[in-house]
Structures are given as structure tokens and as C-alpha cells.
Amino acid sequence: MSTTSVMGGIVRRKEDPSLIQGKGKYVDDIKRTGELAVAFVRSPFAAATINGIDVSAALALDGVHAVYTIDDVRHLGPNPAQVAVGTLRPLLADGVVHHVGEAVAMVVADGAYIARDAADLVFVDYEPGDAVVDLKEAYADKSLVHEGVSNTLLTWAGNAWWEGVIDLPDQSPAIQEAKERDDTVVVSLEMVNQRLLPTAIEPRAVLADWNTGYDSVEMWSSSQIPHAVAGAIGMTFGIPSNKVRVVAPEVGGGFGLKLNVYPDEILCCFASRELSRPVRWTETRREASVASIQGRGWVGTATITGTRDGKILGYELDAICDMGAYTHNFTVAVPLLGLFVAPGQYDIPTSYALHCVVTNTPTTDAYRGAGRPEAAYYLERIIDTFAREIGMDPADVRKVNYWKPDQFPVTTQIGLTMDTGDYETNLNALLERVGYEDLKAKRDAAKAEGRLLGLGLSTYVEVCGFGPSALAGLGFSWAGYGVPTAFNGSGVVRVQPDGTCTVTIGTGPSGQGHETTWAQIVADGLGIAMENIEVQHGDSLDSPVGVGTFGSRSIAVDGTATYEATARVKEKAAVIAGNLLEAAPEDIQFADGGAHVAGSPDRSVAWSQIAESAYQPHTLPEGVEGGLESSVVFSPPNATWPFGSHLALVEVDPETGDVDLLEYWATDDCGNVINPMIVDGQIHGGIAQGVAQALFEEAIYDDAGNLL
Amino acid sequence: MEVRISVNGADHTSDVEPRTLLVHYLRENLGLTGTHVGCETGYCGACTVIVDGRTVKSCTMFAVQADGTSIQTIEGVASGAGLHAVQEGFWECHGLQCGFCTPGMIMSSIALLEENDNPSEDEIRHGIEGNLCRCTGYHNIVRSVQYAGAKMRGEEPQGASQEVSS
Questions:
Q1: Which residues of chain A make contact with B91, given a CB cutoff of 8 A?
Q2: Residue A367 has pLDDT above 50, yes or no
Q3: Got the DSSP string for chain B?
Q4: DSSP symbol at A256
């Protein structure tokens, strides 16, 4: 393995030796003395009223400590980290269930085996009703999921998002006008972007330990957002946030699934407080398929109006988006995220209506891309349809309509500002690399032989790097729901007394390699060796207040905070080193584990000497405070706008329809790369999940709302 | 019921409930938490261990069925702080992200390479198809197994620095 430079170099991951030896501590690997285990009783019906719950047989079982129903927890109110749109999910079903898998009762027992036995003994008297599953029928309000409430919670359209903030011109009249012209072509396509299960390989898990002496709680949760979970728990129980410690240790995959505050997290805290014992719940795979969030689930129509030279004069998107039975953390914000990139990379008049509709199915929320892949899917497929209709190469149609580099910064049709972009260069780089013309010739030649080869092209721009805290001010964050937490990036860089370095960040990984990447940032800035830098994360009390990893935000936001904190530490260290070396701070340079005077490498001190002085304030120059650390909170001025071009070569079996993916190429511009090995790995995983959606995966429900 | 099981070379005699799954026995009774529970249905392979030389998904076997066997888990594939060639391959080739599937993936890869130390890419993909990974897209896992195979054959293995394109 060669390491040319720390920043931008291939560096093996610091976290791997632990993980490959089975030493990684996920929630289920962390034990507390005296633990009890939880099992939930879940609804087998998608729509039913509950006439009664008989817990007596369960309670009578040896080893069962408690069985809770809504009557025990109603006073806590609903989970506070939910968008206050539509019906809020109670912590346990309150007289009615709205999807298969909804939790009805909670059993706490000596161990998971007994808890599950007891859950089977809880008798629930259900009166099943008709489930609303089909999205179009739900949108038509033929029957209602929640009594007396329209199934359409809201529609993102026109100025709905920016009402009173930005005056967006209505582009529909221009589009209608274009449609009426004689020289325009209109293509329209109804498409389903099917529902998916996120399926992190580690199921969710919670361990809560309430200390009734301090009236404080420690909780371990397989979560992408420990700070928000802590905020929601403090709010629910009316205790201050400094008495809630939520730790996200190793997290075995996230993909948005763990970007929620779930009722079970609150309920485990409740049971631990009631029983004065640590309480653990580990999700089964079956529960993961019905009780945690799901992704996608759109049915919609995309329409393009354009001229035969490839110029698009209007793009319309009208889609029904499946919210499932309740809204969670970002449920109605997922279509909004899609809306942010609905016009993609194109300078085209755009009109849109995204209807957020409830059904008797598990809740949807952010899953891998969260609205943005859906938006790209509708736009890119209809562009291909348009290209076919006018007989133009799909790559050329895209180039005609891209924003041009000299137009940036661009205020999009949605009112957001994209800072930079050079889409045509990116696409050309892909096409040249793969030999696009040769591939097309190969495809055409194969057709003559009766083989069906196909080329699939897609390009995209994504809105990432959340967040600019101004978005939170507009409600785009749980901070907008009143949960006391942050929406920014944070990093603390501390040089320890022995000259090693601790980095503590407000975000944490679920596989993205933060411990390595953040160490690279600091190693590059300070010249401290990678092995002497440790990165801590995921503790709502010990980490700086932060957000978490999702939506390609951590390195852009928390990474920048850490970069800035590194610069400040370096500035102070230069003063200390200058004092030790009798040189001006501006003449101090850092490299190879220490500092030296520019031009005189022999006049040097090691980091251990700088640190020793920093923690012995009497050795410091007058006016310099002791210690050597910096804490920075960073709120980016804007989102980031990475973009890219992907091409697939597939062969379709003409008899069976089976699709064989022969080759796949991607050219992504994600800005400065800190560790190309990790970035490539992230893209591999994203492509695999994209291919899986295209060819393999779908969460299908029957008319009664059962996951098939 | 009493079971006698050898795990990573150490003999254990334990009294277990007949319905105790082997994976729970390893994790709860012996504290070997490197073997993970991903699905309890045999699909994901996160709980893969080697029982008498053959890979077993330890959520599909009762502890009592393992009575009298010799079991190897991720904690027992290398001695001390040293790494097995497969572990080294996963580290060198970025064959893991969140790491949850990794111990099972490594156990299956070890069993594969013990049968065939020079598998083709197709043979690797077939050999580990009982183990699911949601993070990596498998590309680097295949490279990791190839690296380990080369190392075990005494050849010069290729790490990630030769694989990364950007």
C-alpha cells in the first residue's frame, strides 16, 4: 500500500483492525448488569380497531416483569421528533392500528426468549377494517386512513415551500404556451418508483439505563442521530438534556433507516425508569421489515415539452408520494428534497406537484438519497423518452439543456442557488472513457444478431451538505419541531499533553470511515502521524453538539468544522513553538511530527514538547492561555451540489426478459477527495443499491396491507 | 441440557436450554460477540462460524446440535494481535464499511479458500453468496478474497492502491 500524501491519499482505515477481528462494539455487544429484554406485540392487521388488550396470561409467565400498553404511556405524549402534519404516531397503538407491525404492547422480561414467549400470550381483540394501500385510491380519498382527515397531508407545489421567503415566478404559463406551439413535441410517461426496505445488516437495537438517583438516563442506540434522540428523550420525560446521554457506538449500516427517533427508544427509557433496571430491545429482521421506516414509493407522471433540436421548453412532474401510515422525522421532507433537485442539471422551465399521501403501510422516510433518486429517476427517464421521440442521442439532449459553466452561480427554478457545476465536461469525460460511440456500434451490431444490448445513461446533480442552518430556521430539521438539538457541523481538536491528538466530532459513521477521514484532515494540518490521532464520536454528552451522518453532509459540514479547528490549534501551536525556538510564530512550519523554523529544519521541537509547554502555562509567553484545543461550530452558507454521469451496459434475454448487467461506469464530481479508496467504496455501495432498485428489490403489499 | 463444545481451541461445558440458538450461546454464554445476529432466518450470513471444518449459519443451529463439535469464530482465526490473510485482505482492499457483516464474510471466505486457494471471481461470488453486505456492493470484498488467496499461495497480493481509479 502506498501513501503519497495524507490528504487525498489512500490510507487504510483506522477502524478496520477492530472490525475485522470481531472487536467492534455494536449496541447488542454492550452489556449492563441486570438487563431486562423487550419484545413488542405488533399488529397483524393494516387497519383495525382495538376492542381490548388482555395482558394477564403474559404477566403470569415466570420471568415477565411488565407488559405496557398505551394506557401506561399516554401521558408521555407522542414522539416529539415527528413532523406535525397529519396524525402523530402514539408511542403504542391507541385504540386503533394503521399498519401491519404497529406496536400495540411492550413486554419486559428476563431475556429475549421469555419476552417473546410472553408477547405471544398477549391477547389483542382486533376488529379489522379496510386497508388503504393503493396510492391512487388513497389520493382520491375513497376511504380514509385516519378518520376524518384527508389522506393527502400536503402538496409541495409552486411556492409552497418558499411561501413568504422567496418570490418564485410561476413557470406553468410558459410551459402551457410551449405546448400550444406547432413546433413542439410533448412526451409524457407514468412511472412507479417502487417502495424499498433500507435493510441495514445490523438491525436496530436499544439499551436504556435510567438512574433514578440522578434522574438521568444513558442509552445506546443504533442511530445516525444520537443528539436528536437525546433531545427527543429529554423533551418526552421533561428532564434537561444534560441528563440524557445517547451513545451511537458502532452502527451497522444506516441508509436513512436509523435517521429517526423511534418510539421504541423512548419506550425502553420509560421501562428502565419504571423498573429501575437496564432495558434492551433488539429488532428482529421481521420487525425491521414492518416497524422501521421504508423508502421511496412514488407513482407519478413526468412530461416534457420541447423542440426537435433537443431544447426542452418545459418539464412537469406530478407525483403521489407514499408516506405510509404516519409521518416520522423527515417523511414529508423527502418529496421536498426531491423537489430541490426536480429540474436536475437543466436550465428548463419546471412545474411540479408532489402530493404527500398516507396509506395503511409502514411509514416511509429518508432512504439512500431520500427523494433525490426519485426525482432523478422521473427526470432522466422522461428525457430518454423525449430523446427517443425526436430521434436524438440521449447524451446530446442532455448537453443541449445543461446549465453552462459561465451561468453559475445559478438560482434554480426552485429558488436555491447552485454555486458551481460543469455538467457537460463531466458527461464528456464519461463518454470518452467508455468509448461511447464504439459501445453504440456494438449495441447496434448485436441487434443485427438478435441480441438485445442496451445502454442506460443517467446524469444528476444532488443537493447535499445539510445543513445551512438557515434551512433549519425554515423547518427543515427536527430543530424545527422544537426538539432541542443542532443543525450545523462541529469539531473539537485537542492536542493531548503527550503530543498525540484527539478529535471529537458532532457526527458519526455508519460505515463511512469517519475515524480515518477526519484523522487525515488533522494529520495533514498539524503534521501529527495518523496513528497518533484518535477520532471520537457518537456520544450526545461527550461529543460536541451535532447532527449525524446522512444526505452526504458530514465531511462537508462537520469536516469543515474540524478543518477550521485544526487551523486554530495550529495557529496557537505556532506561538508556543515560536516561543520554544525563539522564532516568530509566522516562521514556524509543521511537518513530521513537530514544528521547525522555516529554512532551518534543525531548529525543531516535537509535538510532545509543544504540548508539554501548552499544559505547563508558566512556560508559555505572557497572555497565552494554557491548553491546546479548539472547538468550532460551522454553518455552511449553502448546500453542496455534487454531480455525475453514469452509464450501464445491459443485455436483455429476449425470451425471458432477464436483464444481465454487463458493465457499469460512473464519473462523479464530489469535490476535493480526502481518501479516494473510501470515496470509491461509497460509490460502489450506492451503485449496488441503485442496481438493486432497478432490477431486484421491491416491497410489495397485498390489498390488505401485508408485506408479501 | 449439558453440552461440551470446543470453541477456538478452548473446551466449554455448559448447561443450555434446548432451544438456545448456537449464535446466542456463543454471544451470551461465552461472550464472543464478534459473531453477529443479522436476521435469525439464515439469509444474511452475519452469524457464520466454522463447525468441524464447515461453515454454519449459527442462527440456524441449536447449541445442543453443536454438542461434541469443534467451532471456530472470528475471534479464533488468528493468534494474538496477528491477522489471518483474509482479515488482512479485507483491511488492505477496503472490503468492509460498517463491518457488521464482516466477521461472517471473513469466515465464509476462509472456508472457501481452504477448499480452493485460487478461486476465480465467479467462484468467489458463488462461494460467499450466502453472506449479504449492504454497504460495499461486493466489489471490494471480491478483491479482498483475491488478495488473501494470493497471500496464502505465497504470491504478492494486490491492495487497494492498485484498485482505486481516481
A1: 12-13, 16-17, 20
A2: yes
A3: -EEEEEETTEEEEEE--TT-BHHHIIIIIS--TTS--S-SSSSS-TTEEEETTEEEETTSSBGGGGTT-EEE-GGGSSSTT---HHHHHHHHTT--SS-SSHHHHHHHHHHHHHH-SS--HHHHHHHTTTS--SSS-SHHHHHHHHHHHHHHTTS----HHHH---
A4: T
Q: Considering chain B, what percentage of its residues have pLDDT values greater than 90?
A: 93
**Chain A, 246-275: which have a CB under 8 Å from a chain B CB?**
250-255
Please tell me whether the interface predicted TM-score (ipTM) of this complex is above 0.85.
yes
Look up residue A318 and give its three cell numbers.
Answer: 406530478
pLDDT tens by residue, A662-682: 999 999 999 999 999 999 999
pLDDT tens column, A504-518: 999 999 999 999 999
Model confidence pLDDT, tens digit, residues A434-484: 999 999 999 999 999 999 999 999 999 999 998 787 666 665 666 666 777
* Predicted local confidence at residue A472, as pLDDT: 63
CB atoms under 10 Å from CB of B156, counted, come to 6
Q: How far apart are CA A313 and CA A318, in angstroms?
A: 17
A689: chain B residues, CB-CB within 8 Å: 134, 137
- Identity (one letter) of the amino acid at A11? V
pLDDT greater than 50 at residue B166: no
SS3 assignment for A101-158 = CCEEEEEEECCHHHHHHHHHCCEEEEEECCCCCCHHHHHCCCCCCCCCCCCEEEEEEC
**Measuring CA to CA, how many Å separate B157 from each of A404, B120, B125, B148?**
45, 15, 19, 7
Please give the grid coordinates belonging to residue A193: 418508483
